[in-house]
Specification:
- By secondary structure, the chain is mostly helical.
- Helix content is 70%, strand content 0%.
- The longest helix has 21 residues.
- The radius of gyration is 17 Å and the shape is globular.
- The two termini are 30 Å apart.
């Protein structure tokens, strides 16, 4: 989960590994406090997110889960049929895995100013206001970057079919 947050936000495996390692070092340092806490996964996700944002601001210039084709302005809404576990269908599972991989590649190809807000919104379920505050940008910039990121993803993912 920690590496997943980092790779989606940074789009660089080496940088994501560095951030993940730092997160786990911090967790190890606080092991006595964290050991019995039910909020450890949330703490790890928050630390990973903050380290990625710091990394993007300091190292780079400032600037689970999507469903393919569902880049609306709200959260993805699944019908009751889509939420129900389907019977085993290996062909469907392979197709979904390929679609997820294609989307992940497209997401990593976005510039950081579009990728990061998209990851925070869709993968971490942050609100536009939270994202604007985290990134230190205006609410309208967050909305614009998410909108443009979705258009770019749609062109890549939709254009390959």
């Amino acid at each position: 989960m920690v590496y997943g947050v980092a790779i989606r936000m940074l789009a660089d495996p080496a940088e994501a590994e560095d951030v993940a390692q730092t997160v786990f070092l911090r967790a190890f340092e606080r092991f006595g406090v964290l050991r019995d806490q039910p909020t450890v996964p949330g703490w790890l996700r928050t630390v990973a997110t903050n380290l990625c944002l710091n990394h993007l601001t300091r190292v780079r210039p400032r600037w689970r889960q999507f469903s393919v084709g569902r880049f609306d302005h709200g959260r993805s809404r699944l019908s009751p049929e889509e939420r129900m576990p389907a019977p085993d269908d290996p062909e469907r599972d392979v197709l979904q895995a390929e679609q997820r991989a294609e989307l992940e590649r497209a997401l990593q190809g976005l510039p950081a100013h579009q990728r990061v807000p998209l990851v925070l919104f869709h993968f971490q379920e942050r609100s536009y206001r939270e994202i604007a505050k985290l990134l230190g940008v205006s609410l309208s910039k967050v909305k614009t970057d998410i909108h443009r990121g979705r258009i770019a993803l749609r062109a890549v993912v939709g254009g390959s079919k």
